[in-house]
Amino acid sequence: MEYDNFLHYSRRLQMADALGDVYVNLSALKTAKSRFLFTRSLLIKHKMLTRTLNIQMDYDCPALSENFRQKGNDFFRAKKYVKAVDLYTRCLMGSEPTTECHALALGNRSAAHFHLGHFELCLKDARWAMVTNYPSKLAYKLYERAGNAECMLGLAQRAKDSFTECLKRLDEVDMSAENKRKFQETIEIAITKCDERLEDRKRTKKVPPIEELVGGSNETIPALSAFVELKMTEDMGRGVFATHDINPGDVVAIDEPYICGPISPHTEVCHYNGCLKLDVALFPCPKCFLVYYCNKDCMDKADKDGHYLECPIMDFIKSTPGIPRMNELVMKWFLKDYLKMGLKNYCSAVDNFYQSKIDPKTRGFDDNGQYKSDNFLTAYSLDGAEDKLSIDVLFFFNCIAVDLLHYLTLNGFQIPKCDIGTVGASFVHILTVLDMNCRKLNFCAPKIAFQKEIKFTLTIAMTLYPTICLFNHSCDPNVKRSGELSDRVRVMKATQPIPKGTQLFCSYGIIFQGHPKDSRQELLKNRFKFDCYCQPCIKDWSTSQYIPNRLSTLNILNPSMASTVQLECKKFLEFSKSVNPEDYHQHLKYLYSFIKLLYTNVKRPFELYEECLEMIGDAHIMSTNEIISICESPY
Question: How far are the Cα atoms of 238, 243, 493 from residue 499, in angstroms, in the given order?
């Protein structure tokens, strides 16, 4: 099953001989609120909810932990750094995280890692020590070491910041005036080298262009171009249509996520909803040590958005069945809007959403007729296909929601009894929205590339883009993501000509070149709960190995242009052999003109058209963050 520990709840009920007619009774309930309350009563009745948040951690006696640290110091002085790391680790495993001993062991281990050349590990330990109970009079050492590690990793700006902080900490240092002067001179020289490195980078760094929506911003949907509008169709429901001719390269959407977070605990991505920056050795939350931030500013902003309320229960959220990162986003979403709106207004908005008859075309628009990606109703109104879920999945989601809400209340969060059903039902709905539009539909999520050609990428975050979700799927998309792969803000550009009146499509990860029609239809039906009516599916276009690669009377639409098209195709073949993929962006004007020529004169599918289309898509994307290795060279 695609969800972790999917049978967790049903198996426990089955063992208690209580599963019985649960699915039948749940499916008979007509409202989301009644389904949640039914599930909650069931889990309470069978004592399936956590009774306490207290986690008893067994630590060795402080003296033993300190003994490990001191022995580690002996090995460190003897330059036996591997053994030193092992003993510092044993100290950390047996010491209370809030103690000075624990903080000192982190600092000691970071020093040992530095001497071993493990600069990322050194930096991680140093950052961790900075937010723990590390002695302030020694903190300058941490920042100096962090700066040196960042220099070795080629992180010039980060190194400069660390060195600058190191200088600020010198006031607390017990050091002779002469030694302090010499140390200060050394750090100032390091800062100067960082500045020189940054200046060199300015001259060579590949900077994404500042993008603007073609025709300006849409009056009612600000994240979309003014050259598009929403219209209803029989086959696909609501969709985005061109009101003007749109050319390849035109920016049609610039969207920001309503809610987002790292997709894996193993990716170095800032947890703050307004950042999502990919970085090295992030700062852990000093209380739960389970979420990470690129700097203290992001940490403080995340606290204002509600992390202080979820912090004591993060360990429980992460261990809840389902998709742990998705469960975290549910809590983050609720707390953000609870603090912004207040519980009364939050519940009122949720109740009104369920009670009002919503026009499918204007679903998600506010009272002023605006569809804004930072609006609660806009995000909440996204389709989660809740009514199409199998009853076992729906019950599973309700159980997860019961657990999440229970953790909150167990931690002292006050919810009036009359509002528990509303808040719980909102958790279930948010789960379905995230599952459909954030986890499964992740084609726009920030990524990093395994190689410069950007053929293989790794998704690093779960992101919900309310405006981009307006685009319907086609197995032959005419709109694709653009810009830096790892950016939180997502730019969408046209990759094909889009005549006035034509619908704009993106792909939900399935394209006609890679899958035959039957396979595509099955995948889309199972994953997204709809039948696809795009042109490749209606006309059953061939997959890549069977696509025509020569011009003939069968695929030339305009016979009078045959010789011109033939000539340009020969030129394109020469171009494709002579230009490297990383240089495609320098030839976008040519690629745009060639695809426009083929669009009006050649019947698809046609191999050179598809090849040109792929080149345009690759040229629109930048990737300056490479997986595993640090992109910036050390100095």
Answer: 19, 8, 15
Tokens of 533: 């009516």
Under 8 Å between Cβ of 209 and 484: no
User: What is the pLDDT of the chain when averaged over all its residues?
Assistant: 90
Lowest mean pLDDT among 22-31, 280-289, 458-467, 566-575: 280-289
> Would you put residue 416 in left (φ > 0), alpha (ψ -120 to 50) or beta?
beta
Say whether pTM exceeds 0.85. Answer: yes
For the chain, first and last CA: distance in Å?
A: 48
- 235 SS3 class: coil
Q: Has residue 215 got a pLDDT over 80? A: yes
User: How is 402-446 classified by DSSP, letter by letter?
Assistant: HHHHHHHHHTT----HHHHHHHHHHHHHHHHHHIIIIII--TTS-
pLDDT in tens, 156-190: 988 999 999 999 999 888 889 999 999 999 999 99
Using an 8 Å Cβ cutoff, are 248 and 214 in contact?
no
Residue 598 has pLDDT above 90, yes or no: yes
Coil, strand or helix at 367: coil
d(CA 282, CA 292): 6
Residue 50 token pair: 């956590």
Residues 6+ apart with CB under 8 A from 20: none
SS3 state at 473: strand
Among residues 447, 419, 483, 416, which one has the least CA distance to residue 618?
483
Structure tokens at 551: 């011009």
On whether the CB atoms of residues 372 and 378 are closer than 8 A, the answer is yes
Whole-angstrom CA distances from 10 to 14, 15, 50, 321, 598 are 6, 9, 16, 12, 56
pLDDT tens per residue across span 606-627: 999 999 999 999 999 876 554 3
